[in-house]
């Protein structure tokens, strides 16, 4: 367990960055990357530190999320395959800025829909998203929906959710706590 993260960090980081650039509308930036078994044991996690993510149009210039750490749980067995599977997200000390304009356009619609099935067999740097859980700790949420209108702010947000997000209909079990809500 000590050696495995040292053997694969470049492979995992390269595939995750490639997946992000191909799969999302917006820009993901971070200062450093670390691969570890021990940060979120027993999951192998790829942590992006000091990260920021911009939203989708018409909010492409606005920050959707930024924070101390965004970690992705990696299916250990997928390291030995061509495609790495991301199955959990751990978010720590982050700020979420959810925006919806008066026409209902939201900045969180960043995942590109697969309208043109990309079956490029020469592309071996890929990753797949199969979310089984999300853990958010010590974070802040700002939600501004001009289509309702509604403004919500949560400080000290702690959230844990799990379920099968891979299907069009899914059940989500959630636990949410916040120090303050306004």
Explained architecture:
- This protein is mostly beta strands.
- It has two helices and nine strands.
- The protein has helices at residues 4-7, 9-23, and strands at 28-29, 32-40, 43-54, 63-74, 83-100, 126-145, 150-163, 172-177, 180-181.
- Strands 1, 2, 3, 4, 5, 6, 7, 8 and 9 form a nine-stranded mixed sheet that branches.
- A hairpin with an 8-residue loop joins strand 3 and strand 4.
- The radius of gyration is 17 Å and the shape is globular.
- The termini are far apart.
- The relative contact order is 0.15.
Short summary of the structure?
By secondary structure, the chain is mainly beta. It has helices at 4-7, 9-23; strands spanning 28-29, 32-40, 43-54, 63-74, 83-100, 126-145, 150-163, 172-177, 180-181.
Jot down its keywords.
globular, mainly beta, 182 residues, 9-stranded mixed sheet, 52% strand
What does the secondary structure layout of this molecule look like, with pairings?
Layout: H1 4-7, H2 9-23, E1 28-29, E2 32-40, E3 43-54, E4 63-74, E5 83-100, E6 126-145, E7 150-163, E8 172-177, E9 180-181
Parallel strand pairs: 5-6
Antiparallel strand pairs: 1-3, 2-3, 3-4, 4-5, 6-7, 7-8, 7-9
């Amino acid at each position: 367990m000590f050696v495995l993260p040292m053997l694969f960090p470049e492979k995992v980081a390269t595939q995750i960055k490639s997946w992000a650039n191909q799969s999302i509308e917006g820009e993901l930036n971070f200062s450093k990357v670390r691969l570890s078994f021990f940060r979120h044991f027993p999951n192998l996690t790829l942590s992006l530190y000091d990260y920021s993510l911009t939203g989708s149009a018409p909010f492409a210039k606005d920050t959707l999320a930024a924070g101390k750490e965004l970690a992705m749980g990696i299916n250990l067995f997928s390291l030995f395959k061509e495609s790495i599977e991301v199955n959990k997200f751990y978010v720590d000390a982050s700020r979420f800025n959810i925006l919806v304009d008066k026409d209902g356009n939201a900045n969180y619609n960043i995942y590109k829909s697969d309208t043109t099935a990309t079956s490029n067999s020469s592309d071996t740097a890929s990753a797949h998203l199969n979310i089984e859980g999300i853990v958010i700790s010590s974070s802040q949420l700002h939600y501004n929906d001009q289509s309702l209108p509604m403004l919500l702010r949560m400080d000290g947000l702690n959230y844990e959710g799990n379920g099968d997000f891979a299907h069009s209909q899914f059940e989500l079990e959630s636990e949410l706590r916040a120090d303050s809500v306004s």
